[in-house]
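Continuing the series of single-chain predictions for the mutant panel. This is the parent chain; the variants come on the following pages.
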Amino acid sequence: MAADETQLPVEFLATLAAGADPGSAAARMAAEQAHDVANSQQGGPLLAALLAKPYRDSAPSWLLEAAVANGLRQSESAYLTDSTSRSQAR
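Parent structure:
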């Protein structure tokens, strides 16, 4: 995005991303704006929301790198438990 005044509030985008389906326009729009705020403190919740649903199974490298840089981590046991429950649900 070219100017700050054209960006939506990060809290709104995080809420939007949390309910967005993978590949949807909402997910893409939130990801585009997340790229701009990825290195700021306010970017953390948006990155987490994107990785929780729309980019849960596949995420661009910049998103993963930004999440690590922002300190977003999931414990190994939580990841293993979550992936086990997802595979059982299928």
